[in-house]
Amino acid sequence: MPHANSNSLSTPRPPYPITTSSVFAITAAFTALTFPYPRLITLLERTPTMLTHHEWWRFITPVLINPEGWHQIAFNAVALLVLGAIVEREFRAARWLIIYLASAFVGEIAGYYWKPSSAGSSTGISGLLGAFAAQLFFARAPHARAGAILILFGAATLTYFRDLHGPPILFGFALAALMHRLSNPPKPRRSMTRIV
């Protein structure tokens, strides 16, 4: 009888990305409903009059749907599953959800001024990309930090050209960096004392 591989038994499996999967399922469900019920898009999307009409829910509900066709659906689905799983492995469920929703809110504010009629989950996903950049930035490998700087440079460029994805990337990075710092406070340096 062959012996079981001791390495496979001793190595813990990464936790299942339940929050990523749940958000993916919710987004997929709402997006699917927009096909038989297109009026759902007008109820959830970002609009130029949402502030004057006091439709505050539109600062977060656009992230629930991807109404711009199959290219948007496919790209955002893959990006959510890949980035979501990576970020959730590091930050866990609650902090993942805070990063996703808060970044989406920031992206919708930018979208209100720069692209006032649209919807999509890419604003929340952009926050996850920023959180991934924070993971790279705090990694020890120099090439990982270079990757983080590249992402931040791209986000700054998008913001300069008034692309609504720039601000949530930067915000997601800042929020994730803060979470990382609070969870890993710097160790106090030991003072060297001279014995006479």
List the helices and strands and how they pair.
Blueprint: H1 6-10, H2 18-33, H3 39-44, H4 70-114, H5 122-137, H6 142-160, H7 166-183
The 3D shape can be described as: globular
Number of domains: 1
Extended strand count: 0
Level-2 CATH architecture: Up-down Bundle
Strand content: under 5%
* Biggest sheet descriptor: none
Proportion of helical residues: 55-70%
Low-pLDDT stretches are: 1-9, 192-196
CATH topology: Rhomboid-like fold
Terminus-to-terminus distance: 67 Å
Give the SSE order as H and E letters.
HHHHHHH
Mean pLDDT: 91
The CATH H-level superfamily is: Rhomboid-like
Architecture overview:
The protein has 7 helices and no strands. The longest helix has 45 residues, at 70-114. With 196 residues, the chain is mainly α. The protein is globular and about 60 Å long. Mean pLDDT is 91; it is low at 1-9 and 192-196. The chain has helices at residues 6-10, 18-33, 39-44, 70-114, 122-137, 142-160, 166-183. The chain has a single domain (15-181), classed as Rhomboid-like fold. 36% of the residues are buried. Helices cover 64% and strands 0% of the residues.
Key terms:
single chain, 196 residues, mainly alpha, Rhomboid-like fold, 7 helices, disordered N terminus, disordered C terminus
Put the structure in a nutshell:
The chain is mostly helical. The protein is 64% helix and 0% strand.
